[in-house]
Automatic annotation (TrEMBL):
Domain (Hydroxymethylglutaryl-coenzyme A synthase N-terminal) ranges: 2-164
Domain Hydroxymethylglutaryl-coenzyme A synthase C-terminal per the UniProt entry, residue ranges: 180-247, 269-352
Pfam families documented for this protein: HMG_CoA_synt_C, HMG_CoA_synt_N
Protein name: Hydroxymethylglutaryl-CoA synthase
């Protein structure tokens, strides 16, 4: 049975700041951000958006009534959870008006967990071939103002429907994976911003990629010449390039040029949205599929998933016939083109506009947010969401 990605879409907030302007405000050479880090724009999240609303907006545009009837599992992957107990997927279930007979869970392991969701979905569909699984990877990346990681912030969500006989890409087996206790990035319960050891994290990321790529090659005999592209989790785009270059030096010229060119295409959306943590690898997949003009059905794509802490996985997928017809490029183009650029001062104000811990009641200005689904506030300590279409 072929199992894989049947639909895929993404959502990002309607505001962004240019990293060039951010660099100037921080008295840093803009080239260090735009070239050295490889980021051009950074999504800015209004107070009316959180991981739940971002994910719901991502899913809203790709699900049909038929999908909603077939979905019997919702897997929400995030490290920006809004409750220690209740799964974010339960809010999604209500906002999207899914059928009652659905499993709904939340999974966490830094930026890796959407990949864990895919592997869970594969097992579920193998036992239930008529089922569809909705996987959501949604996060808001926060490092704090004037920190070393500030330019690698971002926000957004990717929504995927995984099914048998998928329209976009089958997921091949086997994959290879690795766990190691690494303190390269973490966010304690008391903090709303992350801690990171930057150079150490880059070293671990590259080490994991090399270990897993070669382990996968040993297990499957799939090498660089068999891959049309290799995609990466991209905290910032230059990080993926460093990892790719660590293996393509051994490739022949044709393979090296193909893999580097397709990486350049795959990083585009990440460069203008920023780091979206769990959805980052799959945002790169969307970028490659929607922006390339040469990759045909039957092509094999390598995917490197990494979550600090650390867990990594390398696996491959095969593009399906007419995969381009299942994409949402026009919708994504419109969303990205209609975003509003904000000043560094406005970004800083928005960043600091947060709800104090323990707030019992608050109403938020959802009329200022063009998104269909918004976080509307808190009532009696219960989060409130609004779907403006209802």
């Amino acid at each position: 049975m072929k199992i894989g990605i049947d639909k895929i879409g993404f959502y990002t907030p309607n505001m962004y700041v240019e990293t060039e302007n951010l660099a100037k405000a921080r008295h840093i050479d803009p080239g260090k951000f735009t070239i050295g880090i490889g980021q051009e724009k950074m999504a800015v999240t209004p107070i009316t958006q959180d991981a739940v609303s971002l994910a719901a907006n991502a899913a809203l545009e790709i699900l049909t009534a038929e999908d909603k009837k077939a979905i019997d599992y919702v897997i929400f992957a995030t490290e920006s959870g809004i409750d220690h107990s209740k799964a974010a997927s339960i809010y999604i279930h209500e906002l999207l008006d899914l059928e009652p007979n659905v499993r709904s869970i939340e999974v966490k392991q830094a930026c890796y967990s959407a990949t864990a969701g895919i592997q869970i979905a594969k097992g579920h569909i193998a036992l239930n071939p008529e089922s569809k699984v909705l996987i959501l990877g949604a996060d808001i990346s926060r490092y704090g103002l004037e920190t070393s990681g500030e330019v690698t912030q971002g926000a957004g969500a990717v929504a995927m429907v995984v099914s048998a006989d998928p329209k976009i890409m089958t997921i091949e087996s086997p994959s290879v994976y690795q766990t190691e206790d690494v303190m390269d990035f973490w966010r304690p319960l008391h903090s709303d911003t992350a801690f990171v050891q930057g150079k150490y994290s880059v070293d671990q990321y590259i080490k994991f990629f090399q270990n897993l790529y070669y382990a996968h090659h040993d297990k499957t005999n799939i090498g660089l010449s068999d891959l049309d592209a290799i995609l990466f989790h991209l905290p910032y785009t230059k990080m993926g390039m460093k990892a790719l270059k660590s293996v393509v030096e051994e490739a022949n010229e044709a393979d090296r040029e193909r893999l580097l060119a397709n990486f350049d295409i795959s990083k585009r959306y990440n460069a203008i949205v920023g780091n979206i943590y769990t959805g980052s690898l799959y945002l790169s997949l969307i970028s490659l599929l929607e922006l390339n003009t040469t990759i045909e059905a039957g092509s094999r794509i390598g995917l490197f998933s990494y979550g600090s802490g650390a867990v990594g996985e390398f696996f491959t997928g095969i593009l399906q016939p007419n995969y381009r017809e299942a994409l949402y490029k026009e919708k994504h183009d419109n969303m990205l083109d209609n975003r509003t650029e904000v000043s560094v001062e406005a970004y800083e104000k928005t960043f600091q506009d947060t709800i104090p811990s323990g707030t019992e009641n608050i109403e938020l200005p959802i009329e200022q947010d063009p998104a269909t689904i918004c976080f509307a506030g808190i009532k009696d300590h219960m989060r409130q969401y609004v779907n403006k279409n209802n």
